[in-house]
Every structure is written in structure tokens, then in C-alpha cells.
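Hi X.,

You mentioned you wanted examples for the new student's onboarding notes, showing what a folding record looks like when two proteins sit in one file. Here is a clean example. The first protein comes first, with its sequence line followed by its C-alpha cells.
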Amino acid sequence: MQQQSSVGTRSLSASRAEMSEILMPNDTNNLGRALGGRILEWMDVCGAIAGRRFAERQVVTASMDHVDFLAPIDVGDVVTVEAYVFDTGRTSMDIKVDVTAERPSEGDRRETITSFFTFVALDDDEKPSPVPDLVCDSQEERELRDSALQKRREHRAALAEEFE
């Protein structure tokens, strides 16, 4: 996706966003587990925050890749959503969003959901606007970027195989 931008550079760490919620009964199904739509909403919001921090302007969701629900989230769990930009185009940003759930009283923390979102930056007229180029200032940032790029490639390859 990488294309040159005319608005400078920003680091992966400049985009990082994290938010936490307690899964309440209104956010659950009849089994006391998270409603997928509620968690997707939180993921979209966290991804938008990461995109806004990175682009320093308003963003809109352009797409969301396949979502992997890895483990259930139960009522009362602390849900943490984390997001960061891992690739950029001229006006778009690819953002990895991960969700974990934990029971602090039990010392239990587990990965529950992961997905990739694409957001587009907007100018004051709500037209697509250039975004900075992504730079990775540390080995940790390079590893996060490379891991996200690899996982997205694997997701897309798996989906392509399903449709062959």
C-alpha cells in the first residue's frame, strides 16, 4: 500500500490508541457473552482514534477485513481494544485492531478478537486528504508493522483459497 505522501512522516507510536470498557449486561447476548456488534463498534472507535492521531485530521472507516473471534468475552470482563497504523497509502491508513479480555481478580487475560481496518483521512471539505508516511522509530515498531503486514497477507491468502 505504501505510496509517497506530501505531508511528512509520523511514527507508528504516534498512532497508538487504547481504550477499556467493562462488558456490562446491556452489551451481552442471552448467554452472557459479548454482542459481536458492540465489540465491533468499540474496535471501529479505537481504530478511528489511531487514524486521527496519525493523520491529525478527521477520518472515516473505508473497510474492515475479516474479523477473527478467537475467544468469548463474558459479562464483567475488562475489555481492552488496542489499535495502531501499520501501513499507509496516499489518503488511507491500514490499522490493526486487537481486543483482549481479562478478569483481574483471577489473573486471566486472553486475546479475543483481531481485525484490520482501513480509514481514509478527510480535509475540511470532507474530501480524501493525504496522510503522512509511516516511519518506525524503533525495533519494536518495525516488529509490530512487519507482524501486522504478515498477518494481513495470511488472512487475505486464506480468504482467497476459500473462494477458489
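Then the second protein repeats the pattern, sequence line and then C-alpha cells:
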Amino acid sequence: MTDDVLYEVDAGIATITMNRPDVHNAFTRDTIFQLNGAIRDARDDDAVYAIILTGAGDGFCSGADVRSMPDWTQMTKEDYAGYLWSVQNVIRQLRTTTKPSAAAVDGPAVGAGCDFALAADVRYLSPNALLREGFVRIGLIPGDGGGWLLPRLIGEAKAREYLLTGKDITPSDAVELGLAVEVTDDPLGAARGFTEEVRDLPATAVQHTKALIDSEQSYEDYSERAIEYQWACVNDAEHHEAVAAFNEKRVPDFDREY
């Protein structure tokens, strides 16, 4: 992993840091390649139980670094589709991995950077943070995922307001809308606290709970999946240890690698 993206695993938590602070962590094509690789590493590492996504310096991710982008008008549609798919895949991976994730946002999260934050399970914002889709203001559409994510997170009416105007979602508005957990001077510390809390719970239950949260499924689909997931949980050693610890009034002792 080169310096565009930093990847660190500490006590079962993978912290992925977009590391181009001089441009508020705006990304290049290489950054996207590294970011996808870091999320994939966290997903596939059995010693990782939760993921934090953040940005270096006083930013989260200000979107694409336009200075490094090729002239799209000189590309074929197929070439452009391949590039856009790789950006979309950051969102796809964060949403589909069973590992719970938290975004720590201390500065601008703009365009695709906003979508990276929205794709995490929870968000913690500093007073200096802002979330902005903003695509329409430069003559583009939210092609990275914002037009799909935002209505599901805050409802269609408010999502249309932000998507069609491109205006900022302030930290206080994000909390009021249920888009962020809290505004804090230390969003990374708050994200760490959340990931430590979920890390220390039975992993099969946590991961299956995340997979079960799907607003698109019918109740019958939910119920069928719940049978499969609950069966996996009741046959899981960490469930048995958690129940024993509860009955014996002690802290569970899970067999963990960290």
C-alpha cells in the first residue's frame, strides 16, 4: 500500500485513511485502486472485526482530484464505465462486507467522498465537517451512489432537496436527519469507540445483523433469512460463551486473535 491510502490493523479494528491532505484527500485513479484494495484486505482478514474510514488532516475526501483526471471526452464510454465502476466499488464493498464500519468525518466530504461516508454503517462528524453531493452544480449526476443511498438514509423528500440543489448538509442537520450519530470534536475517537464496542460482541451475531438490515427486502424475505442467520448464531461458540458469561455474571471470554 502506497501513501495515498494508509491501512492499519490494531486490536481487531482496521483503520483506512485517505492520505492526500494537501488536497483534502481528493482521489486519483490510483487512490481508488488502493482504497478498494484496503477495504478488500479488511473484509478478508479474519482478525478484523470492524472498519474505520477516515481522511488525513482537516478533510475526509473532497471527491475526485480534477487536476489528475484525463480528458473524459477523449475516452470511450467503455473506458469511462470501467473507471466509474471502480469508484462505485468502494461503496459496494463497504455496504456488502459483513464487517461493521464507521466513517470519521473531520472536514469536507464532497461528491464521491460524501458517498464513501454514506456507505459506512454509521458516521461521526466534527463541527468542521460537511456533506455535499454537489454534482449538479458542476453539471454531473450522483453517479457514485448518492442518489441511491441518500433517499434510503433520510427519506426521499429531503434527499431530493440535497441532491437537486447540491447544497451542504451541515453537521447539525446530519444529526437531526439521522444521517450522523453525533457531532464531536474527536470523530475518529468516537468511531473508534463504536468499533471497539461492536468488536467485543459475538462476531457472527454482529455480522449477520448487519447483513439482515436491508430496506429493500420484503418481510417474508427477512423472515427466511432470519431463520438461516439465527441458526448460524445458535450454533456459534461465541453465543454459547456469551450466554454462559451472562448466567455467571462475568465478562465473556471469546477466543480472538487480537
